[in-house]
Structure formats: C-alpha cells, structure tokens
Amino acid sequence: MQRTDIDDFPPLVAEIQKLIEDDSMAAAFDYMLAENRIYRAKFGKRVPLTQEDRRILARYGVVARKWLDQICTVMKPESLLRLNRRLKQAKWDYSDRAQRPGRPGTDADTEALVVRLAQENGHWGYDRIAGELLKLGHQVCDQTVGNILKRHGVPRAPGRKGMTWRQFIHSHMSTAWACDFFTEEVWTRAGLTTFYVLFFIHLGTRRVHVANVTTNPNTAWVRQQARNFSMQVGDIPQLCTHLIHDRDRSFLPMDAVLSDEMEIVRTPPHAPKCNAFAERFVREARETLDNLILCGERQLLRSMKTVEKHHNTQRPHQGIGNSIPLPFDYPGVPLPTDKVVCRQGMGGLLNHYECKKAA
User: Fold this and answer.
1) pLDDT of residue 156
2) φ/ψ of residue 193, rounded to 5
3) Which phi and psi (to 5°) does residue 204 adopt?
4) How far does the chain reach from its first CA to its final CA, in angstroms?
5) How many beta carbons lie within 10 A of that of residue 207, not counting itself?
6) What are the strands, taking DSSP E only, across 279-344?
C-alpha cells in the first residue's frame, strides 16, 4: 500500500497550524466561558432542560470531555456522561421499530357501556351482559366483558352490589309512599309546647296527606293514624305496596297495623337523604310555619291542612316536570294578562295564580 506523505497536503497543514497559533480562538473560547457563567448566574442553580437539550449537550460534551470541568456549568460532567450512556443504550432497544399489528382493542364507547350495564344491573353475569350488548349492535364475547370489568375493578355478579337505593325508589315510584314526623313549637296555656306532625307523601305524584298533630304520639294514637291512612289509600287511585320511614320506634305500632297490607321499608340509620321526598316536604312546610305565630293545636292542624291543599292542588313541582300532584285543568292557550288573578293563601304566604272566573 502506497504511503501518503504529509507534504501532499501543504494547504491543510498550513490552515490547521494557523488556527492553532491564532490567539483569537482562545479569546473567543474564554469569552464563551464568561458568557456561559453569566447566563448560569441569571438562571439560578437549576436550569430547566428539555430532553432534546440534554441530547445536544451529550453529543458535543463527549467530544470535549477533558474540557467539561471548565465549560459545563448547566449540568455536572458526570451527569452529562451518564446521559450519553443512556442514549447509547436506547439506540439498541429497537423501540422505534414498528410493532406487529395484534388483535384490535375494544372500542372506548363499548367498554363504557359494558361498565354501565354491570353497575346498573348487579345480578347480571358476563353472558347476560354480552347478550344485551348484542341487542344494541355491540358484538363482544363474555370473556372480553370479564376482562373489561376486571380492569375497572367491578367484581363478578355474585359479589357485585345489588340494587341501589336510587334504583329501588325509581322502580317503585308509582306504588311507594313515605311518612315521617316533624315537630313544631306552638303557644298554649302551658307556654311553648312541642307538637308532632305526622304526614304521608306519595313518591310518584308528590301527593301529601297530613294525618294529624299531637303532643304525645303514643301507641294508641299511632295505630289510629295507621288505620286512617289504610282507609285513605283505599279511596284514592295511588296504590301503596311499600311504605318508607326511618327507624324511629314511634313507627312500630304503625308497622304492626300496616305490615299485612304493604311492605315496610326502613331507611338506614342516620340517612335522611334516603327519605328525601319527605324531608323536602318538611322544608316546604317550615317555609310557611316559620312565618306564623301558632296558638293552639287547632291552628296548627288548620295551617297544615292549608299547606297540604296548596301543595296538592296549586303548587307546581319541578321533580315531576312542573306538574301539580292532583289532576289540574291546564289551559290550551296562554291566558291574557288581564285575566290572570292572584289568589292569596294564609295572608299572602301561599300565593298562586289562575284565570279570573266570569261573574
């Protein structure tokens, strides 16, 4: 092999020698070091770097390894070398190669529907859910259903939560009633006396029946109110197959009377929201009673009957589409404003509006 003499490249050698002997290169190098230190002081101790920034520094830092202690101020030299090793390892992990196409995953909408069906139907197994999905145009096998539910932490049917309280209420809306007591302070000859008000409310229509008021809801009184309610239900179209109330011992005599006619459902302890329809009527009644000075049992009962009439025949309820619990004759066309009159109840506490009747 023919040897190449360095004299064959006199222009290149001369240029390299010129660069080495040029003092301006060293001055430029010192300037960049000074500038780098100034920028480093402006940024503070830690300079935010992106992954791309680290790659660039690693690429140039390996070449200038012996100068790193002087020029590398953004990161420690050992950090720069460690990053370079990681980049070399990442080059051979083949992560950038195209993956072989496998079995396509389940659509996100289908997966959400599987979870929904399982949560809304606690007794459905994998096959039952797969069959229901097939009716809806989603072809999923039972094993896929099981895998989806496992990923979302939904247990198998035997261990899955049964019917929720909300589902129970909505499935028995048309035949379920709720009852409750609330107290009101009334002036009597003995001073302020606590009275107990017993009422029943139909969940589907929000129809309310105020049973009675008393200062002592003893066993005999509660049993009599239960008999009166049983006769009341027999005379109205709203059937009663379930009666919901809390675990107050005052309801035990009522349960003994009504348990043969309907199923008694007791709410969980300290859970007033489970009897939310009754609690909402209590709030509505208090909006009126808090603006009255009640004197005697008769005035309390008369006021509650007025509230009951307003609730059942005059007041729209948002929970049932702004309808009125009892049948109401809605006009077919908007009424002229000059024919709209205000009917006051209890001195303006219970107002409602209707069409002015002809004389």
Assistant:
1) 79
2) -125, 140
3) -70, -45
4) 130
5) 20
6) 340-343
